[in-house]
Every structure is written in structure tokens, then in C-alpha cells.
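Morning, I've got a small favour to ask if you have a moment. I owe you a coffee for this, so here goes:
>
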Amino acid sequence: SLDELNKNWSEIDLSADEETQIASVDIIAKDFNVDFESLANNVDIEKSIEKDFANASSIAFSIQTLDFHGLFLGDAHSTIVAEGLSDKYPNQNPIVFDYVKLSHHGSKFNISNKFLDSIECYNYIVSTNGGKGRAKHPDRETIAKIVSHKNMQKSKVQFYFNYPLYDIESRTGKLFKDEELLLFDCHHKNEFTV
């Protein structure tokens, strides 16, 4: 919560991670050799709110108009979002969204089956340049969990990245096998109009 963030603000390390690491074309992303089905079945691992209060206090919101319903997650924890959605939409399960902007650049620590159980969406926005140092995003596990989830089987899932995939992979290493790229579509789009 914002109260927790305010109380613990002085403990946050604000020094920038200056380590920039560019991957060569021959480098592959972490978990590259693990198949999508195995990644999708991994147990959800979310950082504790107490140890990650800066992200846990991130603002997530939904926008609904007559012809658009979007969910924008900032860096929010998926369990907090799932609880909020359950409170806001008690009679809808799953809640249908036209677009979901994924939390924390598509981190595997910010996605859960509890959250995915509560939504149905086929268009995901991933805001990332691939990351740097040890923080490389998106995680393959996040993409695998979305593509494989029972609520996302009526249509092919679309991922919209704000950088071209080859730019992201220049930092993360190769993210997807050719056969995995048949399971979903990737788009580079850095402007959206609704």
C-alpha cells in the first residue's frame, strides 16, 4: 500500500544498476531449453509484499468505455490485482478485457494462475526494452502461462511490445523457439489509440 511505501521509503536502494549487458545473437534467454508446457505449470512465485513494497504499492487500474475494457497493471502484484478484480466485479468470472498491460515488464514474479483465472484476454501489452544486468524481461514463464491458460484458448494470443523483438532479444538473448512463435503473435507497437 502507499502507507507501507511511505513508511519504508528510506530503506529503498535507489542507486541505479549501471551494469548494462547486451546479449550476442548466440546467447539464449534463461529457461530457453525448458518447454512452454513445463514453464506454464511452474508453481507461481510472487515476491512478498513486505520485501517488495515499492512494486506492491504500484497503481493498477482498469478503463471501461462502451467499446473498450483495458487493465493496466503498472508493477502491481498479481494477487493484489486478482483480489481487487474480485471485489470490483463480483459477478463476472472471468472478466473479459480487450487489452491487459502486463505488470513489471512481463516478470514471472508478477503473474499468477489466480490472476489468470479471473480474466479472459487475447491482447497483452509488454513494456520492456529487454532489461539489463540480472533483470531481463519479459520472462518466458509469463508468456507460457498466458498462452497455455484455459481462459485464453478461444483465439490466438497477441503480444504487443514497445520495442521490436530483435531489440529485446539483443539484451535478453533468444526468447522463443520457432515452434513457440506459432502459438502466439508478436507485434512491435509503441502507440495505441482507442
Remarks:
- The chain has one domain: 2-9+25-188.
